[in-house]
Amino acid sequence: MAEPVFITGMGICSPIGNNLPEVIAALAEGRSGIDSIRSFDCSSLVMKHAGEVKEIPNTERFPSALYRIWDRGTRMAMHAAHEAIAHADLRVREFEASRIGVCVGTSGSGQYQNARFNLDRTLPIDPELVFYLSRNSPHFQSSQIAAQFNIKGPNLAIGAATAGGGIALATALAWLKGDRVDAVLVGGSESFSLLNVLGFDQLGLSLPEPCTPFSGQPGMTFGEGAGFVVLERESSVQRRGARALAKLSSVAIRADGFDPILFHPSGDGQSRAMRAALQDAGLTPGDIDWIRASGTGGRDQDLAETLAIKSVFTTPPPVSSIEPYVGHANGAGPAIGLVAAVLCLQHQLIPATLNYGEPRQGCNLDYVIEGTRRVELRNILCNTVAFGGTNCAVILQAIQHPALPKSIQERDSMHSINCALDEKQSVANRASEYDEIVITGFGIVSSIGCGNYEIMQRLQTTSSFLRSDSSLSDTEFAGRELGFVSEFNSKKFCPTISLRGVENLTQYAAGAVSIALADAAWRRSSSDPNRMGLVSATARTSGTVFARLFTELQTNGFRPLVGRLMLRNGRFMVASQLANWFELRGYSSTISLGNGCGLHAIVAAYDQLRSDPSLDSIVVVACDELSKHSLQMMQCGGLLAPSTSDWALYSSRSKGFIPAEGAVAIVVERLASAKCRNAKVLARVSGAGSTFDGLPGAVCADERPRPSWDSLAIDGAQWSDSCRIACEPSNVAYDQLDLIMGNGCGVWDWDQKEINGQTELFGNRERIQCVNEKTGFGESTSGLLNMAAGVFQLQSGATSVPFDSLKSRSDNVKELAISETKNKHLLVTASTEHGHNAAVLLTVPTCGA
Question: Are the C-beta atoms of 690 and 783 separated by less than 8 Å?
Answer without folding.
Answer: no
